[in-house]
Amino acid sequence: ARRVTLATLRGKHRRGEPISMVTAYDYSSAVHLDSAGVDVVLVGDSAAMTAHGHDNTLPISLDLMLQHCRAVVRGAARPLVVGDLPFGSYESSPAQAVESAVRLMKEGVVDAVKMEGGAASRVGAARAIVDAGIAVMGHVGLTPQTISVLGGFRAQGKTVDGALKVVEAALALQDAGCFAVVLECVPAPVAAAATAALQIPTIGVGAGPLCSGQALVYADLVGMFQSPEHSKVTPKFCKQFGDVGAAIGKALAEYKQQVEDRAFPDADHTPYKISSVDVDAFT
Ligand code: KIV
Ligand code: NA
To answer: How many other CB atoms are found less than 10 A from the CB of residue 14?
Structure first.
Protein backbone atom coordinates (compact mmCIF):
# COMPACT_ATOMS: atom_id res chain seq x y z
CA ALA A 1 0.00 0.00 0.00
CA ARG A 2 1.12 3.57 -0.59
CA ARG A 3 2.68 5.50 2.24
CA VAL A 4 0.58 8.00 4.16
CA THR A 5 1.83 11.54 3.56
CA LEU A 6 0.61 15.00 4.55
CA ALA A 7 -1.21 15.02 1.19
CA THR A 8 -3.03 11.79 2.16
CA LEU A 9 -4.13 13.36 5.44
CA ARG A 10 -5.18 16.59 3.69
CA GLY A 11 -7.31 14.53 1.29
CA LYS A 12 -8.99 12.64 4.11
CA HIS A 13 -9.65 15.87 5.95
CA ARG A 14 -11.12 17.52 2.84
CA ARG A 15 -13.45 14.55 2.31
CA GLY A 16 -14.51 14.62 5.96
CA GLU A 17 -12.94 11.20 6.68
CA PRO A 18 -11.68 10.81 10.26
CA ILE A 19 -7.93 10.35 10.76
CA SER A 20 -6.76 7.58 13.13
CA MET A 21 -3.62 7.98 15.25
CA VAL A 22 -2.14 5.55 17.80
CA THR A 23 1.11 5.66 19.74
CA ALA A 24 3.88 3.06 19.34
CA TYR A 25 7.30 2.77 20.94
CA ASP A 26 8.72 -0.43 19.47
CA TYR A 27 8.87 -2.61 16.37
CA SER A 28 6.10 -5.07 17.26
CA SER A 29 3.43 -2.50 18.09
CA ALA A 30 4.41 -0.56 14.96
CA VAL A 31 3.87 -3.71 12.86
CA HIS A 32 0.43 -4.15 14.48
CA LEU A 33 -0.56 -0.57 13.65
CA ASP A 34 0.75 -0.89 10.09
CA SER A 35 -1.25 -4.11 9.56
CA ALA A 36 -4.38 -2.47 10.98
CA GLY A 37 -4.09 0.38 8.48
CA VAL A 38 -3.86 3.15 11.09
CA ASP A 39 -3.08 6.50 9.38
CA VAL A 40 -0.61 8.04 11.82
CA VAL A 41 1.75 6.40 14.31
CA LEU A 42 2.92 8.70 17.07
CA VAL A 43 6.14 7.84 18.85
CA GLY A 44 4.82 9.65 21.89
CA ASP A 45 6.79 10.70 24.92
CA SER A 46 4.11 8.71 26.78
CA ALA A 47 6.81 6.03 26.25
CA ALA A 48 8.25 7.44 29.48
CA MET A 49 5.16 6.08 31.26
CA THR A 50 4.01 3.01 29.34
CA ALA A 51 7.41 1.68 28.22
CA HIS A 52 9.66 2.91 31.04
CA GLY A 53 7.27 3.01 34.00
CA HIS A 54 7.73 6.65 34.99
CA ASP A 55 4.81 8.50 36.58
CA ASN A 56 4.87 11.30 33.99
CA THR A 57 6.45 12.12 30.63
CA LEU A 58 9.18 14.48 31.87
CA PRO A 59 12.12 12.07 32.36
CA ILE A 60 12.49 10.70 28.80
CA SER A 61 15.50 12.04 26.87
CA LEU A 62 15.81 12.94 23.20
CA ASP A 63 18.39 10.14 22.80
CA LEU A 64 15.91 7.57 24.13
CA MET A 65 13.13 8.99 21.93
CA LEU A 66 15.44 8.54 18.93
CA GLN A 67 15.85 4.83 19.78
CA HIS A 68 12.06 4.40 20.00
CA CYS A 69 11.57 6.28 16.70
CA ARG A 70 14.05 4.08 14.82
CA ALA A 71 12.39 0.90 16.13
CA VAL A 72 8.91 2.13 15.16
CA VAL A 73 9.95 3.25 11.68
CA ARG A 74 11.26 -0.29 10.97
CA GLY A 75 7.79 -1.69 11.68
CA ALA A 76 5.50 1.05 10.35
CA ALA A 77 6.05 1.08 6.60
CA ARG A 78 2.76 2.64 5.53
CA PRO A 79 1.60 5.04 8.30
CA LEU A 80 2.92 8.57 8.71
CA VAL A 81 5.32 8.37 11.67
CA VAL A 82 5.42 11.40 13.99
CA GLY A 83 8.10 11.75 16.67
CA ASP A 84 7.39 13.63 19.91
CA LEU A 85 9.87 16.31 20.97
CA PRO A 86 10.49 15.41 24.63
CA PHE A 87 10.51 17.81 27.57
CA GLY A 88 13.75 19.81 27.63
CA SER A 89 14.52 19.47 23.93
CA TYR A 90 12.83 22.58 22.49
CA GLU A 91 11.85 25.13 25.17
CA SER A 92 15.06 27.18 25.41
CA SER A 93 15.03 28.75 21.95
CA PRO A 94 13.79 28.25 18.39
CA ALA A 95 17.37 27.22 17.53
CA GLN A 96 17.26 24.42 20.14
CA ALA A 97 13.85 23.35 18.81
CA VAL A 98 15.14 23.16 15.23
CA GLU A 99 18.25 21.25 16.34
CA SER A 100 16.15 18.65 18.20
CA ALA A 101 13.62 18.36 15.37
CA VAL A 102 16.45 17.83 12.86
CA ARG A 103 17.79 14.99 15.05
CA LEU A 104 14.34 13.36 15.16
CA MET A 105 14.24 13.51 11.35
CA LYS A 106 17.85 12.50 10.63
CA GLU A 107 18.50 9.96 13.40
CA GLY A 108 14.93 8.97 14.30
CA VAL A 109 13.99 8.81 10.59
CA VAL A 110 10.43 9.99 11.33
CA ASP A 111 8.21 11.85 8.85
CA ALA A 112 7.22 14.73 11.14
CA VAL A 113 7.57 15.97 14.72
CA LYS A 114 5.10 16.93 17.45
CA MET A 115 5.54 19.55 20.13
CA GLU A 116 3.39 20.71 23.03
CA GLY A 117 2.10 24.18 23.82
CA GLY A 118 0.58 27.22 22.18
CA ALA A 119 2.21 30.11 24.04
CA ALA A 120 3.98 32.67 21.85
CA SER A 121 7.43 31.15 22.45
CA ARG A 122 6.21 27.68 21.43
CA VAL A 123 4.49 29.05 18.34
CA GLY A 124 7.79 30.70 17.41
CA ALA A 125 9.58 27.39 17.83
CA ALA A 126 6.96 25.62 15.67
CA ARG A 127 7.42 28.24 12.94
CA ALA A 128 11.21 27.84 13.05
CA ILE A 129 10.93 24.06 12.70
CA VAL A 130 8.52 24.39 9.74
CA ASP A 131 10.90 26.95 8.18
CA ALA A 132 13.65 24.33 8.49
CA GLY A 133 11.53 22.07 6.28
CA ILE A 134 10.08 19.80 8.94
CA ALA A 135 6.35 19.12 9.29
CA VAL A 136 5.04 19.92 12.77
CA MET A 137 1.99 18.62 14.63
CA GLY A 138 0.88 20.91 17.46
CA HIS A 139 -0.57 19.79 20.80
CA VAL A 140 -2.75 21.98 23.05
CA GLY A 141 -5.20 21.57 25.94
CA LEU A 142 -3.71 19.22 28.51
CA THR A 143 0.01 19.28 27.75
CA PRO A 144 1.53 16.61 30.03
CA GLN A 145 5.04 18.12 29.84
CA THR A 146 3.76 21.16 31.79
CA ILE A 147 1.92 19.38 34.65
CA SER A 148 4.22 21.29 36.99
CA VAL A 149 2.38 24.53 36.19
CA LEU A 150 -0.99 22.93 35.32
CA GLY A 151 -1.09 21.27 38.75
CA GLY A 152 -1.34 17.72 37.44
CA PHE A 153 -3.14 15.82 34.68
CA ARG A 154 -6.20 18.08 34.54
CA ALA A 155 -8.72 18.86 31.81
CA GLN A 156 -8.14 22.27 30.17
CA GLY A 157 -10.46 24.81 28.58
CA LYS A 158 -13.21 24.43 31.16
CA THR A 159 -13.69 28.18 31.67
CA VAL A 160 -14.52 30.72 28.96
CA ASP A 161 -11.00 32.13 29.25
CA GLY A 162 -9.50 28.67 29.17
CA ALA A 163 -11.60 27.67 26.16
CA LEU A 164 -10.54 30.80 24.27
CA LYS A 165 -6.91 30.07 25.11
CA VAL A 166 -7.18 26.58 23.62
CA VAL A 167 -8.80 27.79 20.38
CA GLU A 168 -6.41 30.75 20.03
CA ALA A 169 -3.39 28.52 20.61
CA ALA A 170 -4.59 26.09 17.94
CA LEU A 171 -5.12 28.97 15.50
CA ALA A 172 -1.67 30.38 16.24
CA LEU A 173 -0.10 26.96 15.61
CA GLN A 174 -1.97 26.74 12.30
CA ASP A 175 -0.61 30.18 11.36
CA ALA A 176 2.88 28.94 12.26
CA GLY A 177 2.48 26.22 9.64
CA CYS A 178 1.49 23.16 11.69
CA PHE A 179 -0.22 20.45 9.59
CA ALA A 180 -2.47 19.23 12.46
CA VAL A 181 -3.11 19.93 16.13
CA VAL A 182 -3.74 17.44 18.93
CA LEU A 183 -6.47 18.57 21.35
CA GLU A 184 -5.98 16.69 24.62
CA CYS A 185 -8.51 16.54 27.43
CA VAL A 186 -10.70 19.55 26.62
CA PRO A 187 -14.53 19.71 26.71
CA ALA A 188 -16.17 18.43 23.52
CA PRO A 189 -17.69 21.85 22.62
CA VAL A 190 -14.25 23.48 22.90
CA ALA A 191 -12.76 20.84 20.59
CA ALA A 192 -15.69 21.32 18.21
CA ALA A 193 -15.12 25.09 18.18
CA ALA A 194 -11.40 24.64 17.50
CA THR A 195 -12.13 22.13 14.74
CA ALA A 196 -14.60 24.52 13.12
CA ALA A 197 -12.20 27.45 13.38
CA LEU A 198 -9.22 25.60 11.88
CA GLN A 199 -8.46 24.66 8.29
CA ILE A 200 -6.01 21.94 9.41
CA PRO A 201 -7.20 18.71 11.05
CA THR A 202 -7.62 18.41 14.82
CA ILE A 203 -6.73 15.10 16.47
CA GLY A 204 -8.69 14.57 19.67
CA VAL A 205 -7.62 12.58 22.68
CA GLY A 206 -10.23 12.92 25.38
CA ALA A 207 -11.79 15.78 23.39
CA GLY A 208 -15.09 14.30 22.24
CA PRO A 209 -16.33 13.16 18.83
CA LEU A 210 -16.25 16.42 16.87
CA CYS A 211 -12.55 16.41 15.97
CA SER A 212 -11.07 15.64 12.54
CA GLY A 213 -9.41 12.52 13.96
CA GLN A 214 -8.75 10.60 17.17
CA ALA A 215 -5.69 9.37 19.03
CA LEU A 216 -5.13 6.87 21.84
CA VAL A 217 -2.15 5.37 23.64
CA TYR A 218 -1.46 1.83 22.35
CA ALA A 219 -1.26 0.08 25.74
CA ASP A 220 -4.55 1.64 26.90
CA LEU A 221 -6.34 0.89 23.62
CA VAL A 222 -5.44 -2.81 23.51
CA GLY A 223 -5.80 -3.37 27.27
CA MET A 224 -2.15 -4.24 27.82
CA PHE A 225 -2.27 -3.89 31.58
CA GLN A 226 -4.66 -5.96 33.68
CA SER A 227 -4.29 -3.88 36.81
CA PRO A 228 -4.94 -0.12 36.74
CA GLU A 229 -2.00 0.40 39.11
CA HIS A 230 0.36 -1.01 36.44
CA SER A 231 -0.92 1.26 33.72
CA LYS A 232 0.75 4.61 34.09
CA VAL A 233 -1.67 6.37 31.76
CA THR A 234 -5.22 5.01 31.18
CA PRO A 235 -7.26 8.19 31.57
CA LYS A 236 -11.03 8.03 32.07
CA PHE A 237 -11.76 8.89 28.44
CA CYS A 238 -9.84 5.89 27.12
CA LYS A 239 -11.90 3.08 25.64
CA GLN A 240 -10.29 -0.35 25.99
CA PHE A 241 -10.86 -2.07 22.65
CA GLY A 242 -9.10 -5.29 23.61
CA ASP A 243 -8.00 -7.46 26.52
CA VAL A 244 -4.47 -8.25 25.41
CA GLY A 245 -3.11 -8.19 28.97
CA ALA A 246 -5.35 -11.13 29.90
CA ALA A 247 -4.18 -13.13 26.86
CA ILE A 248 -0.53 -12.43 27.74
CA GLY A 249 -1.15 -13.37 31.37
CA LYS A 250 -2.73 -16.68 30.32
CA ALA A 251 0.14 -17.55 27.96
CA LEU A 252 2.78 -16.77 30.60
CA ALA A 253 0.99 -18.74 33.34
CA GLU A 254 0.72 -21.76 31.01
CA TYR A 255 4.41 -21.51 30.06
CA LYS A 256 5.50 -21.36 33.69
CA GLN A 257 3.31 -24.34 34.60
CA GLN A 258 4.61 -26.44 31.70
CA VAL A 259 8.23 -25.67 32.60
CA GLU A 260 7.56 -26.67 36.21
CA ASP A 261 5.77 -29.85 35.06
CA ARG A 262 8.57 -30.58 32.55
CA ALA A 263 5.81 -30.66 29.91
CA PHE A 264 7.69 -28.08 27.85
CA PRO A 265 9.67 -28.59 25.72
CA ASP A 266 7.94 -31.66 24.34
CA ALA A 267 9.24 -33.75 21.44
CA ASP A 268 7.77 -31.37 18.86
CA HIS A 269 9.79 -28.48 20.28
CA THR A 270 13.09 -30.31 20.76
CA PRO A 271 15.51 -30.21 17.81
CA TYR A 272 17.06 -33.61 18.51
CA LYS A 273 17.28 -34.41 14.80
CA ILE A 274 19.40 -31.62 13.36
CA SER A 275 19.76 -32.18 9.65
CA SER A 276 22.38 -30.44 7.55
CA VAL A 277 19.57 -28.24 6.14
CA ASP A 278 18.59 -27.13 9.66
CA VAL A 279 22.21 -26.37 10.48
CA ASP A 280 22.45 -24.21 7.35
CA ALA A 281 19.38 -22.29 8.46
CA PHE A 282 20.99 -21.39 11.77
CA THR A 283 24.49 -20.50 10.59
O1 KIV B 1 2.74 11.03 24.00
C2 KIV B 1 1.55 10.76 23.70
O3 KIV B 1 1.08 9.63 23.83
C4 KIV B 1 0.72 11.84 23.15
C5 KIV B 1 -0.68 11.52 22.73
C6 KIV B 1 -1.56 11.40 23.93
C7 KIV B 1 -1.23 12.51 21.76
O8 KIV B 1 1.19 12.94 23.04
NA1 NA C 1 3.24 13.25 24.06
So the answer is: 9
Which residues lie below 8 Å from residue 230, measured CB to CB, with a gap of 6+? Answer: none
Q: How far is the CA of 57 from the centre of ligand 1 (A)?
A: 10
Among 39, 182, 211, the mutation site with the greatest number of ligand 1 atoms within 8 A of its Cβ is 182
Instruction: Report whether residue 84 contacts ligand 1, using a CB cutoff of 6 Å.
Output: yes
3-state DSSP of the chain: CCCCCHHHHHHHHHCCCCEEEEECCCHHHHHHHHHHCCCEEEECCCHHHHCCCCCCCCCCCHHHHHHHHHHHHHHCCCCEEEEECCCCCCCCCHHHHHHHHHHHHHCCCCCEEECCCCCHHHHHHHHHHHHCCCCEEEEEECCHHHHHHHCCCCCCCCCHHHHHHHHHHHHHHHHCCCCEEEEECCCHHHHHHHHHHCCCCEEEECCCCCCCEEEECHHHHHCCCCCCCCCCCCCCCCCCCCCHHHHHHHHHHHHHHHHHCCCCCCHHHCCCCCCHHHHHHHC
Tens digit of each residue's pLDDT (9 = 90 or more) over 15-61? 999 999 999 999 999 999 999 999 999 999 999 999 999 999 999 99
Structure ipTM over 0.95, yes or no = yes
> Is the separation of the CB atoms in 145 and 118 below 8 Å?
no
Neighbours of 48 (CB within 10 A): 26
Give catalytic status of residue 168 as yes or no: no
pLDDT tens for residues 209-266?
999 999 999 999 999 988 777 766 667 788 999 999 999 999 999 999 999 999 999 9
CA 144 to ligand 1: nearest atom: 8
pTM across the whole model? 0.94
